[in-house]
Every structure is written in structure tokens, then in C-alpha cells.
Design a protein that fits this description.
heterodimer, A: alpha/beta, Lyase, Ornithine Decarboxylase, Chain A, domain 1, TIM Barrel, 2 domains, nine-stranded parallel sheet, 13 helices, 22% strand, B: 80 residues, alpha+beta, 16% strand
């Protein structure tokens, strides 16, 4: 026992059984480095200023990641264009960073389409994807000369009717699904390559002569860990483009390879961390560009390569800062920590073992911990198992790699959505979405007069 | 609370139960508590010792000691 005049720093007493023969060969991962700052911003100060929890996004990481992806493709292929996937993160400030970098917009609904136009993206630079486009959406896209990516025959026929009615020639592409050797094969979107549906649709469009076929599109899956699947997809789309050239002497303007590139997150159940398993932009670029260059296009016929990758461009730039509400011991002896953010704002915790770092200094002693959110629901588990130092009430934590999908799939279930802050390259933090309030939640509710009052005994 | 009599404690926080062959690791404050228990100190005496030695408060020590003792029971390191 230390009995000097100066008292020692306190840490919760811990005891752990030492188990042998149970770990994998790499041992368990422990986050030994506290994350006190993101870029140059103090985590503690950000929480003090914007409340806890709070999403933060690093402008520097977004721009650097975009430049890295752009470089990987542009050094391998002469004509490359990125289109920012709005569904991945459609906070306007984030979209505008990508537009400043040169990205077009890629949207999958009428409201995303309106958002892109409102952000100032020219209509012919907004790619309209997705299975659900209303007549109103289609009319708007036709008037704005937006590339409309047709998902099914019903849409093709409706577009043909609208083209006649509006006396315009819409710019269209078809979405093509195909077997690229990966499982599950996404065949619910677009027209199938192998069974000839895609070629039929192409023939219908060109021979119908009401729509202008300008491109071919695919999106083979999500969180793809195999670049070679993209090479297969690029060959198959090229085959269609070359078939069109041969039969109709018509040149396709672009091949859109969609998105799906994996970020550095770690999927649940994976043996190795995402940093070690996710392919780099260079690997995806090598697979796609080599396939296109070798497909048989003449140099003047090489189509523009469009990429709609979202997750891999934004995931690493996003962090969720939060605080510890309480600690408890479960019936089986496991430590549980309750955090002030739940699955309602971190949808991706259902798919990933997100890296969570303490935001303050700690010793090297750790404990296996279950990380729960604050919701009064059993499903609210952020991490089933994390090896972390003892965290105490009001300590802060940083969740990494949350930039993709969380800020679009979140909901105000039980707890409301937090503020979103951009860590600017100008050295300032910028609030880009305010914390939600009760007024926000109730603004669309309507109370019938008969329910205005009640009496309770 | 009484620790198992034959429990071996090393100065580096390694704990060994020769009856079962189980090994455990404790952090420095955990080791302090085990040593005090081994020397027959009561819970009140341990509480006071920790308050004297560490930068903490009564409530935190109360809460954490309760949890630590429960863990010792769960790991079967105490006399029944």
C-alpha cells in the first residue's frame, strides 16, 4: 500500500481470470491509445460545446480520402467521374464538400433529387437511380436532362409514355445485375445480364427511339471485399456496350460501376480487423480500369467511367463522441457499460464491431465489457464484447468510422438525434446539423379537437 | 469477507489458486485490496485505507468495493 503524503491516482479495482487456449492467434485487441483529439480539436471541448453525444466529421479526412480515390482511378483510366451517393450521407454541408471536389450527385429518391438540385448541382450532373421514381420525379428529371437509370420494364414503358407526352427525349441508362462470383448476388435491381433481360431492354430502348441510351450502370453489392468481382462486372458491361456499338453503331457515353467499396470497418464475425482486410482504392481501380481498358474499346470509344462509391469515401471521416452513463455487472460476471448513444443513431453497430476508444488517459489494465446504449430496449447493444480500460461515469469515448449511413438511417426512437459538427480545415468547428428538439419531432403531428383535453382522477 | 487461505499473490498482480489451478490478474489497487484482505482487515478498514491512499471519494470506493467483492465471490476466491 502506497502511504506517501501524495495520494495515488484512483482506478477501479479489477480482477480477471487468465484464460489460455481461447484466443485467436492474434490475441484480443485492446485500445491502448486514448483519443483525446480529432484533427486538432479536443474531444472534451467538442462535447462541452455541442453536447453529448455528437457526431463529428473531419473535412480534412473527407477531402484527403476523395483525392486518394480520385488519384487511384485517374492514374489508371483517362476519363473518370465520381458522383456523390446522397443516401450515404446527405447532410448538405457534406454533399457540398464532395461537389467542391468535383463530384456529381447520385440520388435514389425524389427528395434526394430535390436536395441535390437545391444544393446547386446542375440537373445533367444528377444521376437518378432507384426502383421508385414517381411521375413527378421522372418529369422533373426529364426537364433537367438528368441521366435516369431505369430499374425495371414498367419504368421503361412509363418513361416512353412521358417522353411522347412531353415531346422530349430523356437521357437514360439501364441498371444491369449480374453474376460476378460473389454471394449474395444482387438481382433485385435492374435487368439481368446472363438471362438476356439487359440486352432485351437495350434493344427496346434503342429501337423504340423515344429515349436516348447514354450509359450502362451496375451496382454489384455492398461492402465488397473482392476487387475481382468489379473486374467481372466491368467486362460484362463492356460486352453490352460493345454489342450496342456493333449492332447499332452507337457509342455509349459512360459506364457507371456504382459503389459498394468496403470501408475500413470490421464486419461482425470477421476474423481480422477491417484495416487488414478491406481492399484499397488502388486495388479496386486496378481491377475496374484494367477490365475496361482490355475490353476491346478503341481509344476514341472509351466510355466515361462513373463511380458512385459512398461508404469508402466518408466512413473514416466520421466519429461519434459520447459519454458513459453508468457501469454495471451482469449476472454472468461480465462488465457492462451504458453509453449515452444507442442503436437509434448508430444503425451500423448491427453490422460492424466499431472501434471504440476512451477519450482520456488510462492505465494498461483492461476488462471485457459489453457496451450498451441508453435505450430501454434489449436490442440496444453497441458492442457485444470490447476490451477496454475501466471507464467511469461521465468519461468520454470516441466511436470510429461512423461517417457512412448513420446520419441518414438514424431515427428519433426514444432518444433524439444529436448535433453534427464539421471539423473544418480552417481550424474551426462548424455546426452543420442542430441537435433535435421536441418541436422538431412534433411539428408534423396533428391533434384532433376531440382529443385536446383529458382528465385523470 | 475472507480470502481463500492458500491463495498466492505476487507483487506484480498475478494471483494463483493452487486448489483449482486458476490464475488471475489484478490491477495495483486490486492487489492492495487482496493484500489487506489476506492480512485480515475488515471491509471498513479497507475502505479507510483506500480513501487515505488514493484520490477518490467515499461513494466511489463504496460502489467499486461492492463490485470487486462480488467478483471475488463469483470467481470463487473467498471462503464460503
Amino acid at each position: 500500500m502506497k502511504m506517501s503524503n501524495k495520494k495515488a491516482l484512483y482506478e477501479r479495482p479489477l480482477i480477471q481470470r487468465i484464460n489460455t487456449g481461447l484466443m485467436n492467434k492474434f490475441g484480443t485487441k485492446t485500445e491502448y491509445a486514448p483519443v483525446t483529439h480529432i484533427d486538432t480539436f479536443s474531444v472534451k471541448d467538442l462535447i462541452t460545446q455541442y453536447g453529448s453525444p455528437v457526431f463529428v466529421l473531419s473535412e480534412r479526412t473527407i477531402r484527403n480520402t476523395y483525392k486518394e480515390a480520385n488519384r487511384a482511378f485517374k492514374t489508371r483510366y483517362p476519363k473518370v467521374q465520381f458522383a456523390w451517393s446522397y443516401k450515404t450521407n446527405y447532410i448538405n454541408a457534406i454533399c457540398n464538400i464532395f461537389h467542391q471536389e468535383g463530384s456529381w450527385a447520385e440520388v435514389v429518391s425524389g427528395f434526394e433529387y430535390a436536395k441535390a438540385l437545391k444544393n446547386g448541382v446542375p440537373g445533367n450532373r444528377v444521376i437518378f437511380n432507384g426502383p421508385d421514381k414517381t411521375d413527378e420525379d421522372l418529369r422533373s428529371a426529364i426537364n433537367n436532362n438528368s441521366p435516369i437509370h431505369i430499374d425495371h420494364l414498367d419504368e421503361l414503358y412509363r418513361l416512353t409514355e412521358l417522353a411522347e407526352e412531353m415531346k422530349k427525349r430523356p437521357n437514360v441508362a439501364i441498371r444491369v445485375n449480374m453474376d460476378t462470383g460473389i454471394y449474395p448476388m444482387w438481382d433485385r435491381f435492374g435487368f439481368n445480364y446472363e438471362n438476356g433481360q439487359a440486352w432485351d431492354a437495350i434493344n427496346k430502348i434503342i429501337l423504340g427511339d423515344k429515349l436516348e441510351l447514354i450509359g450502362l450502370h451496375c451496382h454489384i453489392g455492398t461492402f465488397m471485399l473482392s476487387p475481382s468481382a468489379y473486374a467481372t462486372a466491368a467486362y460484362k458491361l463492356s460486352d453490352l456496350a460493345l454489342g450496342i456499338k456493333q449492332k447499332f453503331n452507337k457509342q455509349i457515353q459512360y459506364i457507371d460501376m456504382g459503389g459498394g467499396f468496403a470501408s475500413k470497418n470490421t464486419l461482425k464475425g470477421s476474423y481480422l480487423p477491417g484495416e487488414d482486410t478491406s481492399p484499397t482504392f488502388d486495388q479496386f481501380a486496378e481491377a475496374i480500369c484494367t477490365a475496361l481498358l482490355n475490353a476491346g474499346f478503341t481509344d476514341k470509344d472509351l466510355p466515361l467511367l462513373i463511380l458512385e462509391t459512398g461508404r469508402a469515401l466518408i466512413d473514416e471521416a466520421g466519429y461519434l463522441l459520447g459519454s458513459v452513463i453508468a457501469n454495471k455487472r451482469l449476472a454472468d460476471g461480465r462488465r457492462a457499460t451504458i453509453l449515452d448513444f444507442g442503436v437509434n443513431i448508430m444503425f451500423t453497430s448491427f453490422w460492424y464491431n466499431h472501434k471504440i476508444s476512451p477519450a482520456q488517459e488510462f492505465s494498461s489494465y483492461t476488462e471485457d465489457t459489453v457496451m450498451y446504449g441508453p435505450l430501454c430496449m434489449n436490442i440496444d447493444v453497441i458492442r457485444d464484447h470490447a476490451t477496454l480500460p475501466p471507464l467511469k461515469k461521465d468519461d468520454h469515448v470516441v466511436v470510429h468510422t461512423v461517417g457512412a449511413y448513420n446520419m441518414t438511417q438514424w431515427m428519433q426512437f426514444i432518444a433524439m438525434r444529436p448535433a453534427v459538427v464539421l471539423l473544418g480545415m480552417d481550424g474551426k468547428s462548424h455546426l452543420i446539423r442542430k441537435r433535435e428538439t421536441l418541436e422538431n419531432i412534433e411539428m408534423n403531428e396533428v391533434m384532433p379537437d376531440i382529443l385536446n383535453t383529458f382528465k385523470l382522477s | 469477507m475472507n480470502l481463500l487461505k492458500n491463495l498466492a499473490l505476487s507483487d506484480t498482480g498475478f494471483v494463483f489458486n493452487p486448489a483449482t489451478g486458476d490464475s488471475f490478474s489484478v490491477n495495483p489497487i486490486g492487489l492492495d485490496i487482496l493484500k489487506l484482505l489476506k492480512n485480515g482487515k475488515s471491509e471498513n478498514e479497507i475502505r479507510k485505507s483506500l480513501l487515505d491512499a488514493y484520490q477518490t471519494d467515499k461513494e466511489t470506493v463504496e460502489k467499486d468495493l461492492y463490485d470487486f467483492f462480488k467478483m471475488l465471490e463469483q470467481l470463487k476466491l473467498t471462503e464460503q
